[in-house]
Amino acid sequence: MSVIIMILLIGLLILVHELGHLGAALLFKVKVDKFGIGLPIGPTLWEKKVGNITLIVHAFLFGGYVSFPDDDKDSNLPQNSPDRLMNKPIWQRAIIFSAGVIANVICAYVLVLLTAALWHNMPSGKFDIYVNDQYLSSYSADGVIVSTATGSTAYSLSAGGPIIQPNAELMMLTPICPHTLNKRSIVFGAKDTITIVMSDNKRVLEERIATYDGEKFYNVITDDKIVITKSDKVSSFIKTNKDSFLQRIREKLM
Predict the structure, then answer these.
(1) Contact 70, 52 (CB under 8 A)
(2) 86: helix, strand or coil
(3) CA distance 210 to 16
(4) Per mean pLDDT, which of 90-104, 133-147, 173-187 is the most reliable?
(5) Mean pLDDT within 106-112
(6) Which of 1, 56, 173, 185 has a CB 3.0–4.6 Å from the CB of 36, allowing a cystine?
(7) In this structure, are residues 193 and 132 in contact, taking their beta carbons and an 8 Å threshold?
């Protein structure tokens, strides 16, 4: 279901993108030959001339497109016509070319507002955190990262987490893009048990993904639990140079 929704959203964004180009072109009186809904693959479901523009609905209903005389070598419109896109001032062309992206941003903003209005919540995941079976907090965020000291300079650092000396025995929890101003990384002892419960968030996101160091991926749904504890196995690392941890931090991150 999530894949179908994603495909529909991508198709909608493409269509809105092309509508942005169309609107800007009409604003600056640029000649537009066709506006198509869907891709020109397979049969045409509907076609009608509206003014000087031919509106077309294709059977392959994914995205859309705008066709200008500049795209057609056999167009009857003279090359020096002021109605041609390439004969417009550069600032008008810049607006027309960027109008698609602007339309996508507006569309995304409207979708977020509609989602928040319908479900009374932002479109993000909700994660209930328990430490040693005691409730800690709930994060409304894009995700949460649990890392050791070794992993503190990877994804956790990118999400705003602190840098920790690799020999420190601990676990750290860092929210990803939380929808609040007072959520920061929390450090726990190495022997603590962290449990993350996929909480119901008004069905904004029913299915989420748990990934382990970016290599293994597992689908999780509402009420699933992920329990994180220290492993009995210990990893050994080989140093290939004499640079200290502080020296590497200074050279690479500062």
Answers:
(1) no
(2) helix
(3) 32
(4) 90-104
(5) 87
(6) 56
(7) yes
Secondary structure tally for the chain: helices H, strands E: 4, 11
Distance CA 242, CA 91 (A): 56
The string of pLDDT tens digits covering residues 193-252 is 999 998 875 554 567 888 888 788 888 888 889 999 998 888 888 878 788 878 877 877
Total Cβ atoms within 10 A of residue 69: 21
Q: Using CA atoms, how far apart are residues 210 and 143, in angstroms rounded to an integer?
A: 9
- Express each pLDDT in 22-50 by its tens digit: 999 999 999 999 999 998 888 999 999 99
String of DSSP letters for 164-231:
--TT--EEEEEEES-SSSS---EEEETT--EEEEEE--TTS--EEEEEETTTEEEEEETT-EEEE---
Tell me how far CA of residue 146 lies from CA of 159, 172, 181, 182, 229, in angstroms: 11, 6, 20, 18, 10
Task: Indicate the residue type of 66.
Answer: V
